[in-house]
Amino acid sequence: MTSADRLDGLDLPALDRYLRSLGIDRDGELRAEFISGGRSNLTFRMYDDKTSWLIRRPPLHGLTPSAHDMAREYKVVAALQGTPVPVARTIALCEDDAVLGAPFQIVEFVAGQVVRRRAQLEAFNHTVIDKCVDALIRVLVDLHSVDPNAVGLADFGKPSGYLERQVRRWGSQWELVRLPDDHRDADVERLHSGLQQAIPQQSRTSIVHGDYRIDNTILDADDPTRVRAVVDWELSTLGDPLSDTALMCVYRDPALDLIVNAQAAWTSPLLPTADELADRYSLVSGLPLEHWEFYMALAYFKLAIIAAGIDFRRRMSDQARGKGESDHMPEVVAPLISRGLGELARLPD
Predict the structure, then answer these.
(1) CATH of the domain at 248
(2) What is the mean pLDDT of each successive set of 10 residues along the chain, which is 349 residues long?
(3) Handedness of CA 231, 234, 240, 243 (dihedral sign)
(4) Neighbouring residues of 191: CB distance < 8 A, sequence distance ≥ 6
(5) Is 113 contained in some domain?
(6) Do 138 and 105 touch, CB atoms closer than 8 A?
(7) Any idea what the Cα angle at residue 206 is, between residues 158 and 103, rounded to 5°?
(8) How do beta strands 217-219 and 227-230 pair?
(9) What is the pLDDT of residue 39?
(10) What is the pLDDT of residue 60?
(11) Backbone region of residue 291 per phi and psi (left: phi > 0; alpha: psi in -120 to 50; beta: other values)
C-alpha cells in the first residue's frame, strides 16, 4: 500500500473530491500504487476497499502539446466500448489542470496479467502460446474491422495519405535524433528515399493501434489465451491496417530486446516468425498482403528511428549529468535500417 505523499503525479485528496463530484462514492480509504511510466504517460492503480480504477496522466517533466493525448487516448477507448475489441470501461476524462496539474483519464482497472518478459511467456506450454497468438491476431483484426464512422471516430485522423505522412514524419524524426556527422546518414537517406518512391495506394482506412504487441494487452490471469483488454492507445489514429500489422511483425526482431533493455516476450523463439504472423493475419482478416515488403520496410524504419531516439535521450541525459558515453545502447539502428533496405529490394519492379 503506497501513501499519497510518495506518489509523484497523484493527489489523492484531490482525486477523492473529484470522484465524489462525479457521484462515485468511496468504500474505505482511497489508496494508489504506481504501475508504469516515465518518459511516456504515467499509469497508477487507485483503489478503495471495494473498487479499483486505472489513472493515466502525462509525465511530470518535459510536457509538450502531446499532453492532449489524454483526450485522444480516452476518446478511442470510449468509442470502442461495446465493440468486439476488448478495452477497459471508461469512467472519466478530466481536462481541468486544477485537479492534478495536467489532464488525466480514469478507466476501470482490468485484472489480469501483462506478459512483458520472455520468461513469463515461456512458462506457458506450446499449445497455450499458439492459442494466445491466435487471440492476439483476432483482436487486431477485430480492431481493423471496426467502422470508424459507426463509433464516432470519423474525425480521429485523416482518412487518406497516412503512408505519406508516416514516411515524412519518421524521416523528420531522424533529423532530430541523429548524431553530428552520423555515419548512418547515407543508409537512412537511402531507405527514406526508397520509401518515398515506393508508397503504394493505402490498403484501406481503419482504426490503428500504432504499438500493438503482447505487452500492450492484458491477458486473463487464469487463461492467457483470452485477451481481457488492449491498452496504451497513445499512438492510435486512422490509418492503414497493414502498417499496424507490419509493425507488430517487426517487433519480433531481436533488436527489440536491446531497445527495451530486457528479454522481451514478443521476441521469444517460441512465437511464430514475422512471416507466419503476417500470414495468420491475412488469413483471419481476408486482407491480402499486397506491397507487403513496403510495409515491412516502413516498420523497420520506424523501429530504427525509435531506437535512435531512445539513444539520443540517453546521450542528452548523460551530457546534462556530465557522464561519459559508455552506457549507450548497443548499435541497433544500422542493422534495422539494413533490414528495411533488404525489404525494399524485394519489391517487384
Answers:
(1) 3.90.1200.10
(2) 59 93 91 79 91 89 55 94 97 93 94 96 97 98 98 93 96 89 92 97 95 97 97 94 98 93 95 98 97 98 92 72 58 94 93
(3) negative
(4) 297, 300, 301, 337, 340, 341, 344
(5) no
(6) no
(7) 65
(8) antiparallel
(9) 58
(10) 76
(11) left
Could you tell me which residues are beta bridge partners of residue 230?
A: 217
For helices 274-285 and 126-145, give the axis angle rounded to 10 degrees: 50
Strand partners, 55: 44, 106
DSSP 117: B
CATH of the domain at 49: 3.30.200.20
Counting the structural domains of the chain, the total is 2
Query: In the listed set 88, 108, 128, which residue is the last one of a domain according to the structure?
Result: 108
Residue 268 grid cell = 521469444
Instruction: Report yes or no on 90 lying in a domain.
Output: yes
Residue 204's nearest CA partner among 248, 237, 167, 160 is: 160
Residue 240 located in a structural domain: yes
Residues 167 and 308 in one domain: yes
CA angle, 105 then 229 then 103, to 5°: 10
Cell of 69: 493525448
Classify residue 103 as exposed, middle or buried by CB count within 10 Å of its CB (0-12, 13-18, 19+).
buried
Q: Which domain holds residue 336?
A: 118-345
